[in-house]
Amino acid sequence: MTYQPYHIIGAERPSRWLVTVDHAANTVPDAVNGGDLGIAPADMQRHIAYDVGAAGIGARLGELLDAPVILSNFSRLVIDPNRGEDDPTLLMKLYDGTIILANRHADAAEVERRLTAYHRPYHAALEELAARREDTVILAVHSFTPRLQGREPRPWHLGVLHAGEDAFSQAVLARFRREADLCIGDNEPYAGHLPGDSIDRHALAQGRANTLIEVRNDLIREAEGQRGWAERLAPLLVDALAASSV
């Protein structure tokens, strides 16, 4: 089977939603150091290599929202699709205490090769999907680790990331906060705008409605949790879209 740097599920689904999962996979293509980044198998199962559980929750959200879903098929350690091409963290050499041996001596030519093979095809496919409708709403799905090395535990079940006071993300935040049992982060555990990232490139620069949700990954490590959280979130997202002005 020919390697493809992304997967698309439900390309012809008709709703205005587009679900994106930038960090869906921990795949290392054979063309990258023989498929081995030189780190322990246990590290390849950590958040440093991909967003644990995000692919499953994203795929189920696509079904429930009748929306196409695009998922990356390369580890963020190969090259990070949620970074601009000039971002210094595009190719990580040290991440949360782990040295990425296969990246330590990667030069500009190797970065360009990985951009051409993986990063750019993913973004070209994402943009093609987004451009099919004038009223596309991009729903970016990510997950976060409950604790980064040496830092305080993260209490949030979910985070909603956004750039400024955009109407749709504010509506999502408001709807999520009506769920009394959930701890919701507003631009937590990260700031919501990174110049050149996927939302900046495909939503903000194009004037498309968008939001990015982060789910704490201990809640969605298993398929049951992924399905359960998608089934809980889908109607809340539909409510938020109806309540917003987008």
From TrEMBL:
This is N-formylglutamate amidohydrolase. One of its GO terms (molecular function) is hydrolase activity. It comes from Haematobacter massiliensis. Keywords: Hydrolase. Pfam families: FGase.
